[in-house]
Design a protein that fits this description.
Keywords: Membrane, Transmembrane, Transmembrane helix. One of its GO terms (molecular function) is transmembrane transporter activity. It comes from Bifidobacterium italicum. This protein is an all-alpha fold and 522 residues long. Helices cover 67% and strands 1% of the residues. The protein has two domains: 194 residues, Growth Hormone, Chain: A (Up-down Bundle), CATH 1.20.1250.20; 206 residues, Growth Hormone, Chain: A. A two-stranded antiparallel ribbon has the order 1-2. It starts with 5 loop residues before the first strand and ends with a helix.
């Protein structure tokens, strides 16, 4: 006779209960009989435990200037076509240890929808920023200064406007990066600075159309650059900190496409708004506002930093992007090459409006519509040749396995591109300059970036070296603006700017030759 009582299962059928295992009722001391402390302890006991508990210090988030991926994002802002194939040395990468590459720096794993939002958000933000800056820099601001100051006065005014803007942007970035590192808000470290920079940039972008003197344009432009500096440094830091290692290349590719599309549309937008530059400037301000909204709302919300530890800010935090301790001779040479190459690009590109319009002389300027159309076509040709240069540079680097040789080829082509308008200051000569120049400039920048990444002497301090490398490009643009102002103030023909551009590229080539000679001796 079965002494087990039937048991009802899930579907209601009766079946006998299984025979218990031997010693299955054994109670493990300290495990099975462990009390629920929330119920067993009184409020006084809980308060006593809290007083005796050891409080761990919260983690201090790394500074933006100490993160290689943040500097890599900033390093790719100048060339829209693509970046160097050389991987940025990041000893904190999740691919180098047992951490999950699918999580961000805070340990958060974004969902597929959030990763897609990052791609779309960063790409659209880059598109609208590139759109607004291309239209303002290439066509609208030079056209306004041409109207206010005339051919020579407008070109000189453009030089000091650009120079003051670059200087303000450099100083603002030096302060904004460490200040954002020490920001602790429920919205995160970077989002408040991005929002504040957007507000400042939009206000002064709308103010550009109300300026009626070159001095007013210069002041408003400088304040606009301060807002843009806050936006850009926060954007670069967000890409480096919030995008997991696994998706960083994909997000970077989307951002690159956004920058390139923004440049193309921005240049042609300037052509369409040739007859109404004030309206065009206001629409560029709307583009900056759209970039800020997309960056704040489409990109997933940044984690709160209220409970993050903040160490006291030191003077050394302001010097991270300006110097490194004990740099090698090769590294100094690379930074000098970057400086002179950036100065050459500044001279060749920033004044293209005045070079195109007054190629027949100061008293025989081209029609406004013809000038705009030619500037836009030159810009499209330069972008197309830069795309071609992307593939050719990779092919040459794979064939020769010598980055310095590829760099010297690019420098030689850049010098040729600058010399062509000196020999033939005509429509055909300027188109040849745009084509060869776009090809050469991208090759030089790509090779320089690969060479800089490969030449970092201390891998554990790669971020500091790349920060100085980025700063050298900014200083180079400042040098180009200063030389451009001198050229237009004292030169008889606007084509003289190409001579100085060729000199700057030749100086970059001389630095490259010195680096090759030094490395061969070692």
């Amino acid at each position: 006779m079965n002494d087990q009582s039937p048991q009802q299962d899930a579907d209601g059928a009766g079946r006998p209960a299984p025979r218990p295992f031997p010693n299955s009722d054994y109670v493990r001391p300290g495990i099975d009989d462990r009390p629920d402390l929330d119920k067993a302890l009184t409020d006084e006991d809980k308060a006593a435990v809290a007083r005796l508990a050891v409080r761990q210090k919260p983690k201090t988030p790394p500074a933006a200037a100490d993160q290689p991926e943040v500097q890599a994002a900033a390093m790719g802002v100048n060339v829209p076509v693509g970046g160097a194939d050389e991987p940025v040395p990041d000893l904190e990468s999740a691919f180098l240890d047992m951490r999950d590459p699918m999580v961000d720096a805070n340990g958060y794993r974004p969902t597929k929808a959030e990763v897609l939002r990052m791609k779309i958000g960063f790409a659209c933000t880059a598109f609208f920023l590139a759109f607004a800056l291309a239209a303002l820099n290439i066509t609208l601001v030079p056209q306004e200064l041409d109207v206010l100051g005339g051919p020579v006065g407008g070109a000189v005014a453009l030089s000091w406007v650009l120079g003051v803007g670059i200087l303000c942007s450099l100083v603002a970035t030096i302060f904004f990066l460490p200040l954002s590192d020490h920001t602790r808000t429920p919205l995160g470290r970077r989002a408040p600075w991005f929002a504040g920079g957007t507000l400042v940039a939009v206000i002064f972008a709308f103010s550009l159309s109300a300026c009626h003197t070159p001095v007013a344009v210069g002041i408003v432009w400088a304040l606009l650059q301060i807002g843009l500096a806050a936006m850009l440094c926060s954007l670069h830091a967000s890409i480096g900190e919030r995008v997991p290692d696994k998706f960083r290349d994909a997000v970077g590719m989307w951002r690159t496409v956004g920058v390139l599309a923004g440049l193309v549309f921005g240049i042609w937008f300037g052509v369409l708004m040739a007859s109404e530059p004030g309206v065009g400037m206001d629409l560029c301000a709307v583009g900056v506002l759209a970039a800020g909204i997309l960056g704040l709302l489409v990109v997933p919300r940044e984690s709160s930093t209220v409970y993050s530890r903040a160490k006291p800010m030191e003077t050394a935090d302001l010097l991270v992007t300006l110097r490194v301790d004990h740099p090698t001779a090769i590294w100094r040479t690379i930074c000098l090459m970057r400086l002179f190459a950036s100065a050459g690009v500044m001279l060749a590109v920033a004044y293209v409006w005045f070079v195109v319009r007054y190629r027949r002389g100061v008293d025989a300027g081209l029609d406004l519509r013809a000038t705009m159309t030619m500037v836009a076509l030159m810009g499209l040709l330069a972008c197309a040749m830069a795309l071609l240069s992307e593939g050719v540079t990779d092919l040459l680097r794979a064939s020769f396995d010598n980055g310095r040789l590829v760099l010297m080829i690019g420098v030689a082509l850049a010098i040729v591109a600058a010399v062509v308008p000196l020999v033939s200051y005509t429509t055909a000569g300027l188109y040849v300059f745009a084509g060869i120049g776009g090809f050469a400039v991208h090759m030089v920048d790509d090779a320089l970036r690969s060479l800089a990444v490969a030449s970092v002497p201390q891998l554990d301090r790669a971020a500091g070296y790349l920060a100085v490398f980025n700063t050298s490009a900014t200083v180079g643009r400042l040098l180009g603006a200063a030389v451009g102002g001198f050229v237009f103030a004292y030169a008889t023909a606007f084509s003289s700017v190409f001579l100085w551009a060729a000199i700057m590229f030749a100086c970059a080539g001389a630095c490259g030759a010195a680096a090759i000679a030094y490395s061969s001796k070692r």
